[in-house]
C-alpha cells in the first residue's frame, strides 16, 4: 500500500538565500498515521509544510503524496491532488474558512470544489466530529477553538488521504487545545486520514505521536 | 423534477447564498463598487438621454420658430402649371382633404381670389389686393372697428388700408372687388389689425402686406377678409387659390412622433401624386432634417464628453475593483488551497463583483435619467420630455461591459498570484506605478491634439475637442510621477526635524508609489472638472455678451399700432428723465450707400438703456456721437410769436414754423407773409400738450415764384391761455443749421448773440429755412466698414426709403461691430431719422427697449403712456436659447459629469484609504508598540493623505485651467458664428473655487483615513503580521 506521504532527500533554498531552508529531509507518514514536526522558530517548519502542500516547489529531492511526485507534477495535477488527497489547515483559521459562511457552508464548498458527491454528508460529519451544535453559525461568530475545529473538519470533509496542519493549537486556551487535539486523533483514527502536524506545542506532539524534530532545515535523529 | 435537477438547484441556491453573504460581509466595499459602477454607467447613459432630451428641446424650439414652415399645405390644382382652380371647386377640394393628420390636429381652410379694389371715393385708384377667406380668421386678427363679416356681402379691411386718406376704405363704406370677368360690391363691416404678421396661422402667404408701394401711391393693399359665401359670389370659373393648411402643434409633437408624421405626410403625397388635383407641400421633413443635422454637433460633443468621463469612471471603478479583489485574496487563496480548478476559482472570484455590477446597471440608468431630469429644466425648454430609450440602455450595457473588463483586469491580478503571494499583504505596494511609456504616449497625443486644435482654429473638428481632456490627463499622469521624487527630497530634512508625523508621512509618500495611482486618477478627474468649470464660466460670460450684442438691451418689446414718433413721445412721457426706457427700431434702407440693417435708437437715452456689444464701441460713446450737442427746444402753448428782422425780401415768402407735436407727428404752422423791417409773426400751434420747435421755413408764395431775403430771428414768445413767455433759443455758433433744401433752395445760416441770420433764395417753388441743430443734418451715423458702400468718414453717404425719400448721412465713426446689426450695419438716432424720412413709419415696427434700471412697473407706465407692447426678446431668453445650442449643452454636460467624476474619484480615494487601513494598521501597530503616541501616528496618517490628495488638487486644478487657457480661443461656444469678441483668457476663479472645495474634502478624507488606520492598529495585528 502507498504511504500517504513520502519525502526523500528533500531540500529547498529560497532564491537569493545563502543557506538551505530545508536540507535532506526524509519523512514518511503512512496511510492513517500521524506525524508531528517540531522545532524552534526558523527551523524550516513552515517551508516544509509549504513544500509538502505543493505550494512551493522543492529545490531538490522527491516528495510523493498519495503516490504523486509533487516536484514533477503539473500545476493542474497539484490542484487535483489537493482536491482529492491532500488537505491543508494553516494557522490562521480565517485562511481556512470563508468567514461569512457557516460551518456547513464551508464544508459544502470544499466538497463541491472536490466534486465529492457521496461519502459522509457535511452535517453528519460535523455531528460525528462533535460540531453539530455550531454547524449553522457563521464562522466569524465562533470562538477561536471552534473556528480551528471547523477548519479541520472543513479540510477533511472531502475525505483526503493526508492532512497537513500548521500550529493547530496556537492562541487557544487549554480546553480548546484539548478539543482540537482530540479532533485530530479522531481524524486519524475514525476517518483514516493521515495527519502531519507542525507545532511548537509539546503536548500536541505527545498526543499525536510520531515526533520529528527539525532544526536548521534538517531532521534531527 | 429529477434528482440531478434538484441537486443543481440546491447547489445554485447555496452558491447564491454564499455570494449574498459575501456581499453583506464586505458591504462597505460592495456599496462602493456599486456606487462607482452605477456612476460610471450613469455617466455613459447620460449621453444618449441628454442627447435625446436636447433633440426634443431643439425640435420643439425649431417648430415654434419656423411656424408654418413645418406645416402641411394641400393645394387644389388645375394642372401641373396652375396653382389656381375654379373657386366653385373649393368645397370639393376641402372635402377631399383630411380634417386632421398625425401632429396636425386641425386645418385651416382657405380661398384667395386676386382682385382689384376701388371705392366710391376713389373709383379710379384700383389697387391690387386679394379677397380672402381663412377659417377662424376673425379670432386671429384684432378687430379695431366694427365686427367680423358674417354676410356674403361683408368684408373686413386692414387698419392700414382703412387709414389711407382719400381712398374711402372706412367702416360701412362699399368697396368693389373686380375679378377676372366680374365684379362684386361688399360693405366694410369691420377693420382689422394683425398684431403678428409672421404668425404661423398666415402660413407664410405674405399677407398682411404693407399697404403702399414706392412713391407713396398705394399699389397693393392688405387683403380683404370675407366669408366663404362672399367669395363664392364670384362665378364658379373665377380662378382662386384653394387650400387646406395644417399647422403643426409643436407642444404636442415629440421625437417619437416624427416617424409617424413623416409617414403620414409621405402617404398623403403618394395618395395625391397621381391625381394632379391636390398638391401636397410640407416643410416638415426638411425642418426635422435640419434639426437632426444641428443635433449632430451636440451628439458628437456629448459622445466626446461621455467618452472622457467614462474613461475616468472606468479608472475609478478599476481602482475600487482592485481593492475589492484584494479584499477577496484570502478567499481566492483558500479555494486554490482546496484545489479548485482555475475556472472554478475564476468563477468564484468574479461572481460577486459581476453580480454587484449587474445590480449597478439599473441604478446607473436611473441615476443618469434622474440627472438629466434635474438638468433639463435648467437649460432646455420647459416641459421637455426626458425619455429613456434603447440607446441609453445600450450605452448602459456597454458601460457594464467596460465595468466587467475593469473587474476582470483587477481580478486577474489576484488570480495570477500563488497562494503564498495571496497571503502576503505587501504585494500591491511592490508593483510599479504604471509603465512610463503609457504616460509618454498620453502626453504625446495630448500635445499633438492641442497643436492640431490651435492650427485648425475654429474650424477644428469636434474630435479635436478631446484635446483638453488629453492635456489634463497628460499633466496629471506625468505630474504624479514627479511627486515621489519631489517628496523624497524632504526625507532627510524631516528626519532630523522635531516633527515625527511629518517625517513618517514624507517617508511613506516617498517610498509607496502604489498610493499615487489613485492620485493620478483624482488629478485627472479634478483637471476635467476644473477645465469644465473654467470653460463653462467663460462660455456663460460669452453667452451674456452675445445676448447683449444680439438683443441690444436687457428687454425689448414690439410696439403695436404705433409709429416711431408716437413711440418716442410715449416713452418720453413714461420715462421723462430717460433712465430706463428708449424707443428703437431696425430698418433696412431700400437704397443709398448704407447697406445692411440700420439700428435706430434714441441717442440721448442709449447709454442708460442699451448694452454694449463686446468688441464694439460703448453705448455711451454711440449715444454721444449720434446725438446733438444742442438740446431740443420744447414748449407747451397754443400760439407762437416770432420776432424777425428782414433787411431784404424778394417775392412773398410765408413764414412757416416746423414742429413735432406730443404724439411725435410733424406739424407745420404758418405765421404770415414775410415783410421787410422788424416785425413779429404769430402762428396758432397745436401744442397745448407740448411740442418741439424744429425750425422756421420760408415757404414759397402761392404763385410758386422765386423768393429770397436776408432775415434775422431775434426771439420767439410762447402763448398759452393768453399768457406769453419768451422761449429760450440757443444762439451759439452751429446751434442752427440750414433746413434741408427743396428744389435747389439755398440758405446761409449763422447764429450769434444778436440772433439767427439766414440769407436765403429759391426758385420754382423751392424753399428752405433754418433749423435747430438738435436734429442734425446730415444725419450722424456710426457704421461698420462693410456697411458703407464707398467713401469714408469725410464723404457724405445717404440712405433712402421705399418711398424714395433720401436722407444724407455723415459717418462719424466706423466701428468693427455694433449692437443688433453686428458686423454689417449702422446705428442712427431714431427721432432724427423718423423726422427726415416721412414714410419710415410704414417700413418699420417700433420697439421699446428697457434698461436694467427699469422699475417693476415699467410696463404699466409705458402702457399708461398709450403703448401696446408685445414681448420681443430679452438678454435672458437669448442667453437661454444660446445655452440650448450644441456646444453649450456639451460643455454643461462636461461640467456636470466632470464635477460628478471628481466627487466620485474623491469617494474612491476615501474608500481606498479605508480599505488599505487594515494593511496600514500593521505598521501603525508597530509604531505604537515602539512607543510613538497615538496622536503622532494619527498625525502621520493624516499628513500622508493630505500630501497625496493635495498633490492631486495641486496638479489637477491648474492643469484644467491650463487646458482652458490653451484651448478656449478655438473651442466652439455657439452653433453659429458671431463677430463679437469672445473671452480668450478665462478667469481662474472657478478653478480656485473648485480647488478650495476639494481641499476641504481632502482634509475630511485624510482625517477619516487616519482614524480608520488608528482604529485598526491594535496589538493583535503584530501577531498576525508574523505569519
Q: What would your notes on this structure say?
A:
Chain A is built from seven helices and ten strands. Chain A has 221 residues and is an alpha/beta fold. Chain A has one domain: Rossmann fold (3-Layer(aba) Sandwich), CATH 3.40.50. In chain A, the strands form two sheets. A six-stranded mixed sheet of chain A has the order 6-7-8-3-9-10, with helices on both faces. A four-stranded antiparallel sheet of chain A has the order 2-1-4-5, with helices on one face. In chain A, helix 3 runs parallel beside helix 5 and helix 5 runs parallel beside helix 6. Chain A starts with a strand and ends with a strand. In chain A, 53% of the residues are buried. Among the domains of chain B are: 183 residues, no CATH class; 211 residues, no CATH class; 154 residues, no CATH class; 140 residues. By secondary structure, chain B is α+β, with helices and mostly antiparallel strands. About 1% of the residues of chain B have low confidence. The chains are: A alpha/beta (221), B alpha+beta (1027). At the A-B interface, helix 2, strand 6 and helix 3 of A face helix 1, helix 9 and helix 12 of B.
Amino acid at each position: 500500500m502507498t504511504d500517504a506521504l513520502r519525502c526523500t532527500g528533500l531540500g529547498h533554498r529560497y532564491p537569493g538565500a545563502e543557506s538551505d531552508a530545508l536540507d535532506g529531509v526524509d519523512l514518511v507518514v503512512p496511510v492513517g498515521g500521524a506525524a508531528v514536526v517540531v522545532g524552534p522558530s526558523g527551523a524550516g517548519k513552515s517551508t516544509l509544510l509549504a513544500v509538502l502542500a505543493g505550494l512551493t516547489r522543492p529545490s531538490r529531492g522527491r516528495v510523493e503524496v498519495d503516490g504523486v511526485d509533487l516536484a514533477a507534477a503539473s500545476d493542474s495535477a497539484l490542484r487535483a491532488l489537493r482536491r482529492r488527497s491532500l488537505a491543508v489547515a494553516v494557522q490562521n483559521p480565517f485562511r481556512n474558512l470563508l468567514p461569512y459562511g457557516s460551518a456547513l457552508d464551508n464544508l459544502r464548498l470544499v466538497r463541491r470544489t472536490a466534486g465529492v458527491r457521496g461519502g459522509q454528508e457535511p452535517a453528519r460529519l460535523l455531528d460525528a466530529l462533535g460540531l453539530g451544535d455550531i454547524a449553522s453559525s457563521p464562522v466569524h461568530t465562533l470562538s477561536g477553538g471552534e473556528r480551528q475545529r471547523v477548519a479541520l473538519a472543513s479540510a477533511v470533509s472531502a475525505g483526503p488521504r493526508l492532512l497537513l496542519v500548521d500550529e493547530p493549537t496556537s492562541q487557544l486556551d487549554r480546553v480548546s487545545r484539548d478539543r482540537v487535539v482530540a479532533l485530530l486523533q479522531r481524524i486519524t483514527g475514525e476517518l483514516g486520514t493521515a495527519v502531519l502536524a507542525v507545532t511548537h506545542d509539546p503536548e500536541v506532539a505527545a498526543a499525536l505521536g510520531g515526533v520529528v524534530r527539525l532544526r536548521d532545515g534538517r531532521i534531527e535523529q | 423534477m429529477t434528482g440531478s435537477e434538484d441537486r443543481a438547484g440546491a447547489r445554485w441556491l447555496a452558491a447564491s447564498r454564499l455570494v449574498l453573504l459575501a456581499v453583506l460581509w464586505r458591504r462597505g466595499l460592495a456599496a462602493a463598487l456599486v456606487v462607482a459602477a452605477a456612476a460610471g454607467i450613469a455617466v455613459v447613459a447620460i449621453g444618449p438621454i441628454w442627447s435625446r432630451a436636447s433633440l426634443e428641446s431643439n425640435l420643439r424650439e425649431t417648430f415654434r420658430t419656423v411656424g408654418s414652415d413645418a406645416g402641411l399645405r394641400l393645394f387644389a390644382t388645375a394642372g401641373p402649371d396652375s396653382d389656381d382652380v375654379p373657386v366653385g371647386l373649393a368645397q370639393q377640394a376641402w372635402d377631399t382633404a383630411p380634417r386632421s393628420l398625425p401632429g396636425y390636429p386641425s386645418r385651416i381652410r382657405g380661398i384667395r381670389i386676386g382682385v382689384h379694389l376701388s371705392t366710391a371715393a376713389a373709383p379710379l385708384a384700383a389697387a391690387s389686393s386679394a379677397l380672402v377667406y381663412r377659417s377662424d380668421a376673425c379670432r386671429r386678427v384684432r378687430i379695431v372697428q366694427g365686427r367680423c363679416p358674417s354676410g356674403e356681402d361683408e368684408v373686413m379691411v386692414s387698419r392700414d388700408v382703412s387709414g389711407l386718406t382719400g381712398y374711402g376704405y372706412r367702416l360701412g363704406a362699399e368697396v368693389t372687388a373686380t375679378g377676372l370677368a366680374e365684379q362684386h360690391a361688399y360693405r366694410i363691416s369691420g377693420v382689422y389689425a394683425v398684431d403678428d404678421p409672421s404668425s404661423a396661422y398666415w402660413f407664410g402667404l405674405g399677407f398682411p402686406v404693407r399697404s403702399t408701394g414706392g412713391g407713396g401711391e398705394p399699389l397693393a393693399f392688405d387683403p380683404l377678409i370675407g366669408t366663404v359665401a362672399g367669395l363664392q359670389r364670384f362665378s364658379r370659373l373665377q380662378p382662386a387659390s384653394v387650400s387646406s393648411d395644417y399647422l403643426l402643434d409643436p407642444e404636442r409633437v415629440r421625437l417619437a412622433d416624427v416617424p409617424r408624421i413623416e409617414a403620414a405626410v409621405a402617404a398623403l403625397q403618394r395618395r395625391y401624386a397621381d391625381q394632379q388635383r391636390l398638391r401636397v407641400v410640407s416643410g416638415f421633413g426638411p425642418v426635422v432634417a435640419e434639426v437632426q443635422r444641428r443635433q449632430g454637433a451636440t451628439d458628437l460633443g456629448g459622445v466626446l464628453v461621455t467618452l472622457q468621463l467614462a474613461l475616468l469612471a472606468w479608472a475609478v471603478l478599476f481602482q475600487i475593483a482592485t481593492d475589492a479583489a484584494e479584499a477577496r485574496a484570502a478567499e481566492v487563496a483558500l479555494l486554490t488551497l482546496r484545489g479548485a480548478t482555475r475556472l472554478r476559482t475564476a468563477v468564484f472570484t468574479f461572481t460577486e463583483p459581476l453580480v454587484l455590477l449587474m445590480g449597478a446597471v439599473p441604478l446607473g440608468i436611473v441615476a443618469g435619467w434622474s440627472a438629466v431630469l434635474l438638468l433639463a429644466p435648467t437649460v432646455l425648454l420647459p416641459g421637455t420630455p426626458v425619455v429613456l430609450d434603447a440607446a441609453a440602455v445600450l450605452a448602459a450595457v456597454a458601460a457594464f461591459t467596460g465595468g466587467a473588463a475593469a473587474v476582470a483586469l483587477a481580478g486577474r491580478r489576484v488570480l495570477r498570484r500563488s497562494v503564498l503571494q495571496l497571503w502576503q499583504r505587501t504585494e500591491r505596494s511592490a508593483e510599479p506605478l504604471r509603465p512610463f511609456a503609457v504616460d509618454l504616449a498620453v502626453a504625446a497625443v495630448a500635445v499633438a491634439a492641442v497643436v492640431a486644435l490651435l492650427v485648425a482654429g475654429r474650424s477644428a473638428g469636434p474630435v479635436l475637442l478631446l484635446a483638453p481632456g488629453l492635456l489634463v490627463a497628460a499633466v496629471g499622469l506625468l505630474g504624479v510621477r514627479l511627486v515621489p521624487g519631489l517628496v523624497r527630497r524632504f526625507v532627510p530634512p524631516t528626519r532630523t526635524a522635531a516633527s515625527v508625523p511629518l517625517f513618517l508621512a514624507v517617508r511613506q509618500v516617498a517610498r509607496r508609489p502604489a498610493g499615487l495611482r489613485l492620485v493620478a486618477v483624482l488629478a485627472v478627474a479634478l483637471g476635467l472638472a476644473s477645465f469644465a468649470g473654467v470653460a463653462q464660466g467663460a462660455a456663460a460670460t460669452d453667452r451674456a455678451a452675445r445676448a447683449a450684442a444680439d438683443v441690444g438691451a436687457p428687454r425689448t418689446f414690439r410696439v403695436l399700432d404705433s409709429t416711431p414718433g408716437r413711440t418716442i413721445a410715449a416713452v418720453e412721457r413714461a420715462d421723462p428723465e430717460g433712465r430706463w426706457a428708449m424707443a428703437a427700431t431696425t430698418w433696412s434702407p431700400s437704397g443709398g450707400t448704407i447697406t445692411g440693417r440700420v439700428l435706430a435708437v434714441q441717442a440721448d437715452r442709449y447709454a442708460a438703456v442699451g448694452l454694449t456689444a463686446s468688441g464694439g464701441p460703448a453705448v455711451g460713446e454711440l449715444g454721444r456721437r449720434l446725438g446733438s450737442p444742442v438740446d431740443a427746444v420744447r414748449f407747451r402753448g397754443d400760439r407762437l410769436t416770432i420776432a424777425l428782422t428782414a433787411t431784404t425780401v424778394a417775392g412773398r415768402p410765408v413764414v412757416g414754423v416746423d414742429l413735432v407735436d406730443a404724439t411725435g407727428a410733424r406739424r407745420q404752422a404758418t405765421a404770415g407773409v414775410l415783410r421787410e423791417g422788424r416785425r413779429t409773426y404769430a402762428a396758432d400751434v397745436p401744442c397745448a400738450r407740448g411740442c418741439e420747435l424744429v425750425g422756421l421755413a420760408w415757404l414759397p408764395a402761392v404763385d410758386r415764384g422765386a423768393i429770397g431775403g436776408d432775415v434775422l430771428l431775434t426771439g420767439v414768445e410762447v402763448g398759452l391761455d393768453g399768457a406769453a413767455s419768451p422761449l429760450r433759443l440757443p444762439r451759439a455758433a452751429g446751434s442752427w443749421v440750414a433746413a434741408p433744401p427743396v428744389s435747389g433752395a439755398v440758405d446761409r445760416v449763422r447764429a450769434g448773440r444778436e440772433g439767427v441770420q439766414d440769407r436765403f433764395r429759391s426758385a420754382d417753388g423751392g424753399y428752405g429755412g433754418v433749423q435747430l441743430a438738435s436734429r442734425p443734418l446730415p444725419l450722424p451715423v456710426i457704421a461698420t466698414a462693410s456697411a458703407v458702400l464707398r467713401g469714408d468718414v469725410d464723404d457724405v453717404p445717404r440712405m433712402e426709403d421705399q418711398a424714395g425719400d433720401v436722407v444724407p448721412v455723415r459717418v462719424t465713426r466706423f466701428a468693427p461691430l455694433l449692437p443688433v446689426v453686428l458686423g454689417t450695419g449702422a446705428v442712427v438716432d431714431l427721432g432724427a431719422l423718423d423726422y427726415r424720412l416721412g414714410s419710415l413709419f410704414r417700413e418699420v415696427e417700433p420697439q421699446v427697449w428697457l434698461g436694467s434700471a427699469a422699475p417693476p412697473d415699467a410696463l404699466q407706465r409705458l402702457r399708461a403712456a398709450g403703448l401696446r407692447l408685445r414681448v420681443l426678446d430679452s438678454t435672458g431668453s437669448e442667453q437661454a436659447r444660446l445655452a440650448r445650442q450644441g456646444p453649450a449643452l456639451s460643455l454643461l454636460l462636461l461640467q456636470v459629469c466632470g464635477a460628478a467624476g471628481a466627487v466620485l474619484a474623491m469617494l474612491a480615494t476615501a474608500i481606498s484609504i479605508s480599505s488599505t487601513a487594515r494593511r496600514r494598521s500593521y505598521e501603525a501597530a508597530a509604531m505604537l508598540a515602539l512607543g510613538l503616541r497615538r496622536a503622532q501616528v494619527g498625525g502621520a496618517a493624516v499628513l500622508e493623505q493630505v500630501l497625496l490628495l493635495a498633490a492631486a488638487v495641486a496638479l489637477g486644478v491648474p492643469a484644467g485651467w491650463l487646458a482652458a487657457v490653451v484651448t478656449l480661443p478655438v473651442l466652439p461656444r455657439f452653433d453659429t458664428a458671431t463677430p463679437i469678441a469672445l473671452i480668450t483668457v478665462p478667469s481662474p476663479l472657478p478653478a480656485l473655487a473648485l480647488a478650495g472645495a476639494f481641499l476641504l474634502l481632502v482634509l475630511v478624507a485624510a482625517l477619516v483615513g487616519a482614524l480608520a488606520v488608528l482604529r485598526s492598529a491594535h496589538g493583535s495585528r503584530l501577531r498576525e503580521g508574523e505569519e
